[in-house]
Design a protein that fits this description.
single chain; 541 residues; mainly alpha; 5 strands; globular
Length: 541
């Protein structure tokens, strides 16, 4: 070897050693940031009171607490979610009964698991530490933004870890994609779907990649495709087997499946039929804090298509250099199905997009890797470390800016005296006058009243929310609510409809509810728009 080549080799080794050292420092910084970010994000779940208009977290917590009393979900309490969130909340309440704040600890446990898995996933794909750190930073920042975590204890926060773990385990099965890793990947995708159907997005991405490996990349045989796909989906189904057995035993299997899947497909179909392109439009402002990462992901999509086309022409499917491109493709497929799931309802609620944070972060990091450092065996020099850090900040900048606003809001919430919402005031009043056997029905979506009072409902459908979300829900649940109310009138009824002349007040189901209240109840207290009625034949306290 010539002296000139030796000098170049030594310089290259020195640069790599310097990059490793810098990467190690960055990983340490990002790990500290991830911890602080999660602490901030989960503190909102623990300390910030839920708003008057209601949020899903207290509803899930209430259904879980009722389950511990023997009231089986879907039979005694109903909402359109799979059982995973109720299982997790109930397990938490077994250790800390009725403490909503402890759910923040459970959330943090799941989220730290997700962050660790994101790092392991990127490193298993061969990504340098700087790239893996970017994926973790994006996940930690975006996943803890108040923007996406409305009220806390959301199903989406529990989807993140098992979905990411599914992708990681599937990657362990490369390049043949057979055996236990494929089954476990399917199993954890099934676990993710136990919290929300969007959890199956990871499995859909894996299945489509297997199909591409067979039909386009020629790296799998038809037999391998069938076996691998069957094993992965069998793993997903196996995750649901305990739930199938439990709810079948209590004759609630059909209700559980309808709440988990049937209703949600019906709901989404109704929304898209009414406004087919609305969801696409409302998604644009919702993605604002993660806009830079989304743009980088979109750039990666075009680059992957270009790379795949070039590889097809050169017939490089069996090349070792093709492996990172397969993983990049997998990350983009994962992001695509997550995004499709977030848009599926046609509503564009912010927390729907929380589930796609890891897939977007990984896709953006893969694009960053390709353009700044180059994949292994790429014949081009990588960008300087300073340029990599600059791009790192550009991609994560909007998230950091939004998080700075969250820190300010958290500071104000901790310094200023807590202001109780009308829902909390209503719960305090009910707790002061209720008997142990009293029951409750709340027409408007204020589930925190149920949780704070612990009162059981005489109606399985706890609020009238689902009567307003689709024509099918209006007839099915509106009729059920009125029948159950007349069959077994609750001790107390809460109505927070603002204006008797509003569109909501003119609804036929609400009119039927008002007629029922007028016939059987008397007004005992009002807090703003919230009115509390007591069953007329109950003695006043």
């Amino acid at each position: 070897m010539s002296s000139e080549n030796c000098v170049q080799l030594n310089a290259s080794e020195a640069n790599r050693a310097e990059n490793r050292s810098e990467g190690n420092h960055l990983v340490t910084v990002v790990a500290c940031y991830a911890f602080l970010s999660t602490l901030i994000g989960r503190t909102f779940t623990a300390l910030i009171p839920t708003p008057l208009e209601g949020s899903d977290g207290p509803l899930f917590a209430y259904i879980a607490s009722e389950w511990l009393k023997g009231h089986i979900p879907y039979l005694f309490t109903w909402t359109n979610k799979p059982p995973g969130i109720f299982i997790t909340n109930a397990a938490t309440f077994l250790l800390f009964p009725g403490n909503l704040k402890t759910l923040a600890v459970t959330e943090a446990f799941f989220f730290f698991g997700c962050l660790a898995t994101v790092y392991l996933l990127m490193r298993s794909w061969g990504a340098p530490r700087v790239v893996a750190a970017l994926a973790v930073a994006l996940t930690a920042g975006a996943g803890n933004l108040l923007w996406f975590n409305q009220g806390g204890n959301l199903t989406e926060i529990y989807v993140l870890w098992p979905a990411t773990l599914s992708i990681y385990l599937f990657s362990r099965a490369a390049p043949n994609y057979r055996g236990k890793w494929v089954f476990l990947a399917g199993f954890f995708a099934g676990v993710a779907a136990l919290f929300k159907p969007i959890g199956i997005a990871a499995l859909l991405a894996q299945t489509l990649l297997l199909f591409l490996l067979y039909i386009s990349f020629r790296r799998l045989s038809a037999r391998d495709l069938i076996i691998s796909s069957t094993v992965s989906w069998a793993g997903a189904v196996s995750a649901w087997v305990p739930a199938f057995i439990y709810f079948y035993h209590y004759k609630a299997l059909g209700e559980m499946l309808f709440a988990s899947f049937g209703y949600n497909f019906e709901y989404a179909g109704s929304n898209w039929a009414q406004a087919p392109f609305w969801a696409l439009l409302v998604a644009i402002p919702v993605l604002k804090p993660i806009g830079a990462a989304a743009i980088m992901g979109a750039v990666g999509l075009f680059e992957v298509v270009s790379k795949l086309t070039s590889a097809a022409r050169a017939r490089q499917w069996e090349s070792k250099a093709f492996e990172p491109l397969i993983f990049w493709t997998l990350s983009l497929l994962w992001f695509f199905f997550d995004l499709a799931g977030a848009l599926a309802s046609g509503r564009g609620y912010r927390h729907y997009f929380l589930a796609m944070v890891p897939s977007l972060s990984v896709s953006a990091a893969m694009t960053f890797w390709h353009f700044t450092r180059g994949f292994p065996n790429d014949r081009r020099p990588g960008a300087s470390l300073k340029l990599q850090y600059l791009l790192f900040l550009v991609v994560s900048g909007p998230i950091l800016f939004s998080q700075a606003g969250d820190v300010w809001k958290l500071r104000l919430a901790l310094v200023q005296p807590a202001v109780k919402t009308p829902a909390h005031i209503t719960a305090d009043y009910l707790n002061s006058v209720r008997q142990a056997s009293d029951t409750l029905f709340v027409w408007d979506y204020l589930p925190e009243i149920y949780f704070l009072t612990g009162m059981s409902s005489s109606v399985r459908v706890l609020t009238a929310l689902h009567t307003s979300l689709s024509p099918q829900g209006h007839e099915r649940f509106g009729g059920e609510i009125l029948r159950e109310l007349n069959k077994q009138p609750p001790s107390y009824v809460v109505d927070a409809t603002e204006d008797a002349n509003s569109f909501a007040a003119q609804d036929s189901m609400y009119q039927g509810f008002r007629d029922f209240v007028v016939r059987h109840y008397s007004l005992v207290r009002a807090f703003g728009d919230v009115k509390i009625y007591k069953l007329a034949d109950l003695p006043r306290k």
